[in-house]
Amino acid sequence: EIVSMADSTTTIDDIEGELFKIERIREILVRRESELRYMMDDIQLCKEISRLKKELQKLIALPENEKSNEEKQREEELVQQIHKLVETRDFLVDDVEFERLREREEDKEMAEFLQSKLSKSYLQKASRQSPIPLSTAPVKEKKMTSRGQQTSAPYMTKTGLTLLKECCGFTCSIM
Question: What does the domain layout of the chain look like in residue ranges?
């Protein structure tokens, strides 16, 4: 038996609402994917910095008068590599912070949009259901938080900058 979508009791508002929910979920997943990629990059940078620092510490432990020219040169190379990786990590941290600020702004704009859309929808429904003129119908102002803000909160303790600091606090600092 074929069931037509036209036979459904779903309204256009219901469909728009469902599409909006799906779009928000997709947006949250894209943000989370991005956050996980930043975290992976940070972990890899931290591991590489730690590895290079261990190698450098072995060279530094040798008495200066016993070091060969190759060992002295390797010491300089390691310092340069560590410095370069720390700079890369600094750029990564800046990118994470920029993304966070951009996402907050997007969430704020979306909340304002939803509030205005819901307020208009509320006024339209109220005018159909109530004999009270629109100008005197009470509009309940409600502060909206986006779905992204609601679901992101639990992740804030172990993601992004917090994780970057926990992961690299001591091991990634330059000697």
Answer: 12-127
